Amino acid sequence: MGSTTTAATRSARERLLASAAQLFQERGINATGIDLVVRNAGVAKASLYNNFASKEALVVAYLEQELDGWVQHSRSLDDPFGARPERVAALFEALAVSVESHTFHGCPFTNAVIELPECVSVRRVAEHYREVVRAHLASIAGEDPTSTLVSRLFLLYDAAITAAKVGRDAGLVRQASTMAQELV
Amino acid sequence: MGSTTTAATRSARERLLASAAQLFQERGINATGIDLVVRNAGVAKASLYNNFASKEALVVAYLEQELDGWVQHSRSLDDPFGARPERVAALFEALAVSVESHTFHGCPFTNAVIELPECVSVRRVAEHYREVVRAHLASIAGEDPTSTLVSRLFLLYDAAITAAKVGRDAGLVRQASTMAQELV
DNA sequence: ACAATACCAGACAGATCGGTATAGTTAGCA
DNA sequence: TGCTAACTATACCGATCTGTCTGGTATTGT
C-alpha cells in the first residue's frame, strides 16, 4: 500500500487518462460517454471506478494532467537566458504550429468551464492553470504577476487560443505573438 | 399561409427562444435537456417540434437571435460621429458592466462551438458572428476588416470575453479596453 | 503455494436523452 | 357554423447516460 503501485495499475489509469484526454478534447466532455472512454482505453469499466470516484473525478484528473503537461511543455520551450521577445515568441509559435497541424482543440480548461459551469472543482483547476500561466509570463517579463504588462501578455495569450479555436486562424495567433513581443 | 403567423404561434416560438437563450447560457447546451427548455418556456413539447425541426435547429435559431441582438446592442452603443477611442471604449465598457452584474456567461458562439465541435451549422453562425464583429470594428477604425489594426482590436475583444468568462475579471476587460484605445 | 489485488468482460439498474404519437382544446376565418 | 391550424398535456419509444454488480483471470509479494 502507500506509494506502492503495480505496473498494471499504472497502465490502466494512464490508459484511461490518455483516452479521456483524447476524447474530451476532440468531442467535448458532455458529449463523451463513459463507455466510449473505457472502450477507447481498452480497459474494463470497473477499472475506471477503481481509479476514479466518478466521471467528474476523471475530468478533474484529466485537467490536472493537462496542467502538468502545460508546465512541462512551456518549460521545455523556454530559454531562461534568452531575450524576452524571443521567449515570448517561442510560447506563441508553439501554439501557432499546433493550430496548423490540426491537433489543437482549444484550451482544455476554458472548454471544461464552459461545459461544466456549475462544477467548482473544474473551476478550481482552471483558475490554478491561469495562475500558472501568469507566473510563467511574469518570469519572462521579469515583473510581478499582477503587473499591467503581465496582464496584457496574459490577455494576448488567451486571445490567441480563442482565435485559434473558433476562427482556426494561425495568422491571428501570430498577430498576437507580434503584439506580445512589442510589449516586452 | 406563407407569412401569415398567428399571435399564439409567435408567442410560443418567442417563449421557446427566450427559454433556450437563458438555459443554454446558464447551464450549457448539452447539459440542458429539451424537457427543461419546454417546461421553462411554459409550452407544450409538440410546440417545440412544430417550430423547430430538432434540438440542433433550436440551437442554431438561438444563435441567430443572439447575433441579431449583438448587432442591435453594438449599434445602440455606438456614436458614428464620436472619436475612435470613445467608440472603442463604449464597446468594451458594456462588456465590463455585464461581467460585474453577473449576467455574463461568455460568448454564446464560442461556447456553442466548444460544446458542439462537429456541428457545421453552429460553426457557420459562429463564423458569421466573427465577420460581423470584424466589420463593426473596421467601421470604428476606419480601415479594411482585414487590416492589421482591425485584427488586433478583434483579438483584444476575444481576449476580454474569455478573461471575463473564466477569470471573472472585469479588471482584465478594462485592461483590454485600454489597449484597444491605445491602438486607434 | 497462496492470499491479495488489480484486471477483464459484460449484464444490469434507474434515470434521462431526443423525438413521436395521441387526444382534446382554443382561436381565427369563410 | 364548421373547417383549419396551432395550441396544451401527457404517454410513449428506443437509445444512451452514469454507475453498480457479478464472476472469472492474471499478476504480485511473501
Automatic annotation (TrEMBL), chains A, B:
Q: Where is the HTH tetR-type domain?
A: 10-70
Any GO MF annotation of the entry: DNA binding
The record's Pfam families line, in alphabetical order, gives: TetR_N (PF00440)
**Is the keyword DNA-binding in the record?**
yes
Q: What are the alphabetically sorted keywords of the record?
A: DNA-binding, Transcription, Transcription regulation
Signal sequence residues: none
Domain of life of the organism in this record? Answer: Bacteria
Q: Which residues bind DNA?
A: 33-52
Name listed for the protein in its UniProt record? TetR/AcrR family transcriptional regulator
Please name the source species.
Answer: Cryobacterium levicorallinum
